[in-house]
Amino acid sequence: MLQVFKSIVAEFISLPMPTIAAVNGHAAAVGCALALCHDYVIMRRHRGVLYMSEVDMEFTFPYCFAALFRAKVGLAQALRDVMLRGAKIRGEEAVRMGIVDSGGA
Hints:
single chain, alpha/beta, 2-enoyl-CoA Hydratase, Chain A, domain 1, two-stranded parallel sheet, 5 helices, globular, Enoyl-CoA_hydra/iso, delta(3)-delta(2)-enoyl-CoA isomerase activity, transmembrane, membrane, ClpP/crotonase-like_dom_sf
């Protein structure tokens, strides 16, 4: 499955046009990573969360996940919260942390 995901990430990040992910619910694990593959991420303010459940399950992050998150999450504190603490981040907080572009409605 990891090989398939890597190819999906490569396809998304190399598209010759901007892409937008609309997260209207929970985006956990691969869903969270898939959302971050896009150029713009919009998210519902209160309804869903971004969450890396691998942290709670004590799984090791594949290299491609770590590289994607380092490239897309600019603030070191936000990166630690997502990848080390397994924080469940709602829309408004994700905007403040610079993870998503909009956390409305």
